[in-house]
Amino acid sequence: MKKGRIILCGGNISVLSMIYNELSRELDIPLVLVEEKRPLPSRISQRIRRKGIRKVFGQVLFSRLVLPGLRRQAKPIREEIIKNYCLDTREIDERIVISVPSVNHPAARRCFRRAGVSAAALFGTSIITKETLDQVDLPLVNLHLGLSRYYRGLNCTYWALVDGRPEACGATVHLVVKGLDSGPILAEKKVFPDRKDNFAVYDFRNLAEGLSLLRETLAGICERGLPEAGRRGKGVLKTTPTLSEYLHNRRTHGVS
């Protein structure tokens, strides 16, 4: 018997499939919201407005020149992780999948209100706006691939290793509030990278370790309500490295 009903929201359908299959072991998920991918020029323009053209240009160079090779190297390691953690990669039944422009779109908010669920699980969505938080009367629970008490944002394990802090690597389940990965912590787990891992593996290993944490937290919310939350995530905010940052960190700190 299922322990409760939730709604699942995210951006990457292949990753969402693994999350769905893990959560559905204990929870009924009648609806999966998938954010539509915005056109690349629009995403880059927004990033330039926030971070400046020099920073974004360096990130694009890293993504185009280095990341594809890292992903090729990571493929057998990711396949090993899928096998060792028994991750289920079967596709989600398309009848329960709804595509939305954003989790902040009115259509998504209507789904939140009408789904008849106890909570919503989020992974890799747009930043939730104050307007959405005010209109959605549900616990919004996010899986963050880092320990938010130390690092928020993107590629947190990478930056923890660059800083020489392997003890600050892990996964966090937290409530969503205004601010990126800054909500009250519901559960967290340290995850220690393998020596053969690289930039394209760190987050995937955290995901594999964090899925059971997310499932157990959501099942508890459905059965007993929200637990007493821990401290807020107040870690330093990180993002994708630029090409020069990555090459410097690889040469200086040995972090790939």
Which structural class should the secondary elements be placed in? alpha/beta
| Ends distance | 44 Å
Number of helices: 9
Largest sheet: 7 strands, mixed
Task: Outline the low-pLDDT stretches.
Answer: none
How many domains comprise the coordinates?
Answer: 1
Strand content: 15-25%
CATH fold-level name: Rossmann fold
Write the CATH architecture name.
3-Layer(aba) Sandwich
Which key features would you list for this structure?
256 residues; alpha/beta; Rossmann fold; 7-stranded mixed beta sheet; two-stranded parallel sheet; globular
Characterize this entry briefly.
With 256 residues, this protein is of the alpha/beta class. It is built from 9 helices and 9 strands.
Task: Explain how this protein is built.
The mean pLDDT is 94. The chain has helices at residues 13-23, 40-51, 53-65, 67-84, 106-114, 130-135, 156-162, 199-224, 243-253, and strands spanning 5-10, 28-35, 97-100, 119-123, 140-144, 151-153, 170-175, 185-190, 236-238. Helix 2 (40-51) crosses helix 3 and helix 4 crosses helix 8 (199-224). It has one domain (5-253): Rossmann fold (3-Layer(aba) Sandwich). It starts with a strand and ends with a helix. The strands form two sheets. A seven-stranded mixed beta sheet has the order 3-2-1-4-5-7-8, with helices on both faces. A two-stranded parallel ribbon has the order 6-9. It is 44% helix and 18% strand. It contains nine helices and nine strands. It has 256 residues and is α/β, with parallel strands linked by helices.
